[in-house]
Amino acid sequence: MNEQHLDIEEEKPLDPAAEKLRRKMLRLMVISLGSMFIGIFAVLFAIVYKMNNSAVASNSIEASVSLPDGFEIQETRLGDDVILFRGLTSQGSKRVLIFDAISGQSRGMIEIK
């Protein structure tokens, strides 16, 4: 019977001052959790942003290639480390010129017949 008596006492509503304090603490907890989540997402966003920008900067290529005189480019393709130029020579034959994407040096030529 004592256990029932204790359960009933625990279920009694809080007095108005204690209820006001409980609501205030709950509101502060929600505000602090919200600001913590905003801070975590801001840090994660900054990390992802920085990783993407550094990847773009490290992959930038600046090179020049020398194509034969009179070569008319019809199509270009960029692979992992090569650039392909497909086109016509001044004599009208079809060729694919292959260049190193980093150095711009010629790797070869394919004549299409």
Question: What does it look like?
Answer:
With 113 residues, this protein is an alpha+beta fold. It has 2 domains: 2-58; 72-112. The protein has helices at residues 2-10, 16-58; strands spanning 72-78, 82-88, 94-100, 106-112. A 4-stranded antiparallel beta sheet has the order 1-2-3-4, with no helix packed on it.
**Tally of extended strands?**
4
Q: How would you spell out the order of helices and strands?
A: HHEEEE
Percent range of helical residues: 40-55%
Widest sheet, order of strands: 1-2-3-4
State the end-to-end distance: 103 Å
| Envelope shape | rod-shaped
Mean pLDDT: 84
Residue ranges: pLDDT <50 for 5 or more in a row? none
Number of helices: 2
What count of domains describes the coordinates? 2
Sheet/helix structural class: alpha+beta
Largest sheet: 4 strands, antiparallel
Tell me what portion of residues adopts beta-strand conformation. 15-25%
The radius of gyration computed from the alpha-carbon positions, rounded to a whole number of angstroms, is 36 Å
Features:
113 residues, alpha+beta, 2 domains, 4-stranded antiparallel beta sheet, 2 helices, 4 strands, rod-shaped
Summarize the helices and strands and which ones pair or pack.
Elements: H1 2-10, H2 16-58, E1 72-78, E2 82-88, E3 94-100, E4 106-112
Antiparallel strand pairs: 1-2, 2-3, 3-4
In short:
The protein is α+β, with helices and mostly antiparallel strands.
